[in-house]
Amino acid sequence: GPAGMGGVSEPGPQAPLAVLSKVELRVSCKHLLDRDTLNKSDPCVLLLMQTQGQWMEVDRSEVIKSNLNPVFAKIFTVDYYFEEVQKLRFEVYDSHGQAGVGTHDDDFLGGMECTVGQIVAQKRVTKPLFLKYGKFAGKSTITIISEEISGNNGYVELAFRAKKLDDKDLFSKSDPFLEIYRIDDDRSEQLVYRTEVVKNNLSPIWEPFKVSLNSLCSCEEKRKLRCVVWDYDSRGKHDFIGEFFTTFEEMQKAMGENKVQWDCMNPKYKIKKRNYKNSGVVVLLDLKIHRVYSFLDYIMGGCQIHFTVAIDFTASNGDPRNSCSLHYINPYQPNEYLKALVAVGEICQDYDSDKKFSALGFGARIPPKYEVSHDFAINFNPDNDECEGIQGVVESYQSCLPKIQLYGPTNVAPIISKVARVAADEERTKEASHPCPPLQYFILLILTDGVVTDMADTREAIVRASYLPMSIIIVGVGNADFTDMQILDGDDGVLRSPKGEPVLRDIVQFVPFREFKNVSGAATSSCL
């Protein structure tokens, strides 16, 4: 399905939305208004996108303390549909700690509107920031630099530490942080990543972090990188400790058991001090490269699709003996779950080479002990949960329903994690001998009536699964509130784990079956 950052105009049946590419946006500001009496403003940028006439927040940057000319480390990623007018709005706020950013008018430092197309065409856009009612925010400007990602070549995980850095503080030790800049062909520098600050430590170990290869080096191994170590100052006047230059090619020597280290140099000290050696050493402890494949890569790589169906057997569906139940056992016509299963399953069946479906249930008490299970085989054969085609799933469903007791809660994370474990095992098995995409791709089809109980665990499970050869289709059955499902779909912004980690790929597609049960299978499939 179309990844969901567009959605301004409704395409006709002959004009499906084609994602031209993904675009990375880097944001910086100059001459921001100073809202704080003692310190300078602590700016943060919110990115909003217009969806069906409404401004929806897509993502937000980090907060930079006490800085009126911030360069944000956060890289915003949006899908670019060239045939659409995709309106963006950037809003800059002075943040006050944990209070929600953007909640007080007096914290608003200015906004700017443009389209994705304008930024892509100009590559670099600088515009004034405006307050309410079209009033200029002093001399404040915002600069957006865009870069199209042509093909996703994966990401790299890096772990840095430093040793024996210069001490810049009088009464305590330095508070170091590291910045990595990519040097572009025009010699301009783009901030790739800024680490956290390690307080009062001349030999800090920074948290490992992930960056896309596109962002780090434009997928060119020999492109020069500048790495700078600073001593953090709460008033924004960070002290320069030293710098070094490297390339991604050189960094790759840190793979496996090896480490790479560089002298952290202060050019002024090098000139002034005769016996100057360095201002400390920076060590790359570990580097891991992760390739990222699109669904098309998997299909074109000749991989097999493996489908798993998961059916919601929680009590909110209603007693199957009652005609109002979504699981009503009706000898004359299929209930809502069977209709959804057949409609969506027949589309999925075309992609499955062996036409065998793993079929699982969740949220019911099951025999023999009638304990609640959130991932049981509906054929009651835990060693082989596969059914022959959609008809086999239908028969197992009809046979299983009278034997179980609908219960709860609606926990979806266990089934996502179960399929993810199989996908991870498959990837590990193939990775050593097969540099191409894994030979199996896993699709989990979840049929549910709505509200999810374990929302935080489910978000975490989806973020983890987004690193695997796996997609999730959620079909909403009945007329319940599907707000949770729309959040998991991520079409109005990037889905994040409870800790704030974004999904690597948009792997969830939500379909409310009530909107499609009276249309053709082809129309339903176009929404999946």
Q: Care to count the β-strands?
A: 26
At the first level of CATH, the class of the largest domain is Alpha Beta
State the CATH superfamily name of the largest domain.
Answer: von Willebrand factor, type A domain
**Roughly what fraction of the amino acids lie in strands?**
25-35%
Low-confidence stretches: 1-19, 519-528
- Estimate percent helicity: 10-25%
Contiguous helical run count: 11
Over all CA atoms, what is the radius of gyration?
Answer: 27 Å
What is the overall shape?
A: elongated
Please give the largest β-sheet: 7 strands, mixed
CATH topology of the largest domain: Rossmann fold
Terminal residue distance: 5 Å
**CATH architectural group of the largest domain:** 3-Layer(aba) Sandwich
- Indicate the structural class: alpha+beta
Mean pLDDT: 84
In the residues, how many domains can be counted?
3
Family: Belongs to the copine family.
Domain C2: 2-129, 136-263
InterPro entries: C2_dom, C2_domain_sf, C2B_Copine, Copine, Copine_C, VWF_A, vWFA_dom_sf
Protein name: Copine-7
